[in-house]
Amino acid sequence: MFDHVVIGVRNYAVSRLFFVQALEPLGVTVVHDGPLGVELCRPDSLSSLCIRREPEESPAHLHLAFTADNRQQVEAFYRAALAAGAMDNGAPGLRAQYHENYYAAFVIGPDGHNIEAVCHEAEA
Question: Which helix H or strand E contains 81, and what residues bound it?
């Protein structure tokens, strides 16, 4: 269901330490550490939790990325979400900055959260 979940935090150092330590007994480890934040995942999982740095004065919105089986599902999600009242935040397309087959669409839901559908497979 989930590809990844991104939460923005106001005190990155405290939150990073908390999640790394609290999730370690569950087999969750750091798989990427970069300027935007940290990504945590189990070695046998395709789902991850991302902790992102947020400016103290801005609200921390949630980012939910749902797994799509193919690119057509990404496109159908995008159309359905817009029809349901979401705002566009990125039309379906490749996002090569993540990897060569990262095909995703983004919308802003009714509460201001960034909702994504993503397919990691090459075009069929």
Answer: helix 71-83
Q: What phi and psi values does residue 89 have, to the nearest 5 degrees?
A: -135, 15
Per-residue CA distances from 99 to 3, 9, 33 (Å): 14, 25, 16
Question: Residue 28 has which token pair?
Answer: 């969750």
Task: Give the list of residues 6+ apart from residue 56 with CB closer than 8 angstroms, or none.
Answer: 10
Residue 72: phi and psi, rounded to 5, are: -65, -35
- How far is it, in rounded angstroms, from Cα 29 to Cα 85? 37
The single residue listed with the structure tokens 């990504």 is 39
Name the CA dihedral angle for 8, 2, 20, 22, rounded to a multiple of 10 degrees: 110
Q: Name which of 104, 98, 94 is nearest 34 in CA terms.
A: 98
pLDDT in tens, 44-73: 898 999 998 876 666 567 888 999 989 999
Give the predicted TM-score (pTM) of the model. Answer: 0.74
* Cβ proximity of 65 and 52 under 8 Å: no
H or E stretch including 76? helix 71-83
